[in-house]
# Entry
Amino acid sequence: MIERTNVNKNFTNMRIHHGQKRMIWQKFFKLASKG
# Structure
């Protein structure tokens, strides 16, 4: 049970981290396209 919640926590953290990365990349590309 504990191990399972740990895995879920890690998965959620990964998803959040990935979402932040995507947001940063989108901002970067917007700035780059403005030139």
